[in-house]
Amino acid sequence: MTHIYALCSTGHDKLHLWRDAARDGGPQPTSEAVDRGLDDRGLRLFDLELDAQQHQPAHFKIHGGPDDQQFWERDEHTKTVPRTANYEFPEVLYCVEGAARVLTQNPFDAEHERVTVHLVTARRLRGGQLWYWSPGVEAQPVTASRVDEYGPVFELDLSGAQRHWFSFKFVAADGTPEPEFANRLWCAQDGAEIWVHSLAAAVSSTPPSRVPLRVCTLPFIEAPKAQLHLWQEDSDFIADLDATVAPDGSLRFESLVYADRPYRFMFRSRAGDYWEDDEAQRNVFLSSDGAVWTVTGDGNRRQVSKAELWTLDGDHELFGARPQRKQQVVVSIAARDPAFSNGGPLTLDVWVNHARTKLYEALAPDADGRWYFQTYSEVVTSFVFRAGGVREPIERHTVKIDEDDDLPTTVYVVLGRADALPRAPIPDLFADPPFELHRPGAWLDNGSVHFVLHCPTAACVEVIGEWTNWERHPIPLRSTRDGTFFWGRIDASSITGPLGRTSIHGVGYKFLINQQRFVQDPAADWVENSAPSSQSQLVDHGSYQWRSNGWQRPGWEYLIVYQAHPNGFADQNQAVGFDAITRELTADDGYLRGLGATALLLLPVAEYAMDYGWGYNPSFFYAVESSYGGPDALKRLVDACHERGLAVLVDVVFNHAGTGDNALWAVASKSYFDGDTEWGAMINFDHPQVIHFFEQNL
């Protein structure tokens, strides 16, 4: 769960979240955060669930207002959710409408009554003013008090909440303001004296200095054609650097840059007919002593070198010395997707991530039927097979080897499936089941628990749970020969026996995708809650003893409908959710007893993100919302209604889905989603497996 405290204008009470689309062109996940209202500091609290296992960056904007005057933050103010040291998302973030910066520290933990702002500008903004403001607080102009070696200096006297944070920008002498991307956010943790550059949003607590940036790489194109494209994301600085050839044959690029300012770079050809893939964008900043640093994917700073840095075409990894191609990789083919049935000899192409040139082309297997090649540590190495010259129907397989791993790395490949596996998958991976696939998910039938998952791109799917000691003893599933479903069947006693239980009811489980990614069952009948880190739970529907066995569904003319929200209906008598409604139906003083209603209409009961909402952002369509009491509490309510002659109607949402914690995104987003709606991702009812998923849900 991530909590975002936002300083917004009145009425701007919505937060729209989205994640970058996957490289394979799948749909782009979007969702709306849950608004918790204003706190005593005037900050609006938004809650959202994010799956850290999905590597695509997450962004958000604030919006709101009446329908005829909708407000959305500008694109330049798009905010990106940072990662923590273990690549999770932070629990608490702070932001201000109108600025892109996102804070991980509470600005109200410190304060300053006076702040000195140094503007680094050669000519553009000299003679202008500084304007500072907060949402709902009118902008105040400040004239420079003096000029120092960098440019004008401004003194700000602060009061109220602006002692903790405020937004600011500069306006030129002719009245022209800086562009929107230069909107800065100061927080008290920045200190009482700061330095900023013109047309740049970054705020620094130290004076600027210039140091040489030196980048080295192995040749990826003829030296006269090679360039390094250098820029800052928060300013208008861009430079294209020409290459020089070093005595060792490497290409070298050099430029003076400001210390402690973030830069990005990538390689290109001078003519522009070659650009590195966006995934190769590197981030770098230099300290005042010339040391080179980068920010890793988990948000940590890592020193790369004390002078020059090295990198490889096609990958963002940075090295402190010339990288050596000495890591051995062994590739074994473990299985073959029947859809990739091309004959002919298999050869292997190998390259660094998205590099222009290959390390190996048409590599043949050794006598033992495996492929051996050398690559670099710390970078993503890509490889793909060809059968008789026909390429696998995937973008690539990948492997990444840690620098301190001196042993050969063996990976197992399922031809036609992208993910390379650290362990060999089950033999005879592709086989059709001996039972009918009634539905997706997990169900108990004739003493066996059946598991079915639509995950058509996976090379391996396993079931883990309490009885397997989770990932220590995973149970492999097989794929149908058409690649539609992974399936498995295990005896219920093999679940209950190790746990010393008499029933599978409530036993926790999850799916393990490609031996490394944990996901809940998107068709689970019961989940602990919708968070990706939580578990699904097995259900024995036969364990509930129904009392109202004689109930017959009435005609529409019978119905006098009373609608209720399970958690909003009643919070008295220490009962919540379905049990609260049941109590009001069965107790002598129950509110529902004397109303005369003949039918109870429940707002959507499918599991949705977090514990408070209307239910129109479903995350798990088969599971009953955990905060309402789960499937057993719903059965108790239905039983009580039927005993008293009340029909039960349930509102369902099949048009769209929530995306912040929806397991469908993790297993088959291209199957289940096709576009967007104003409420969430649009369900793709053109896909046969999607139709099957919702037909069986009914």
What are the salient characteristics of this protein?
single chain, mainly beta, six-stranded antiparallel β-sheet, 54 strands
Task: Summarize the topology.
Layout: E1 2-7, E2 14-19, E3 30-32, E4 34-38, E5 44-48, E6 58-64, E7 71-72, E8 79-80, E9 92-96, E10 102-103, E11 114-120, E12 129-134, E13 137-143, E14 146-147, E15 152-157, E16 165-171, E17 184-187, E18 193-197, E19 210-217, E20 226-231, E21 238-242, E22 244-245, E23 251-258, E24 263-269, E25 282-286, E26 292-295, E27 301-305, E28 309-311, E29 318-319, E30 327-336, E31 346-352, E32 360-363, E33 371-375, E34 380-387, E35 390-391, E36 397-400, E37 409-415, E38 441-445, E39 448-453, E40 461-465, E41 475-476, E42 478-479, E43 486-491, H1 493-499, E44 508-513, E45 517-519, E46 536-537, E47 561-564, H2 577-586, E48 599-602, E49 606-608, E50 618-624, H3 630-643, E51 647-650, E52 656-657, H4 663-672, E53 673-676, E54 681-683, H5 688-697
Parallel strand pairs: 1-9, 11-18, 19-28, 30-37, 47-48, 48-51
Antiparallel strand pairs: 1-5, 2-3, 2-6, 4-5, 6-7, 6-8, 9-10, 11-15, 12-13, 12-16, 14-15, 16-17, 19-23, 20-21, 20-24, 22-23, 24-25, 25-26, 26-27, 28-29, 30-33, 31-32, 31-34, 34-35, 34-36, 38-39, 39-43, 40-41, 40-44, 42-43, 44-45, 44-46, 49-50, 52-54, 53-54
Helix pairs in contact: 2-3
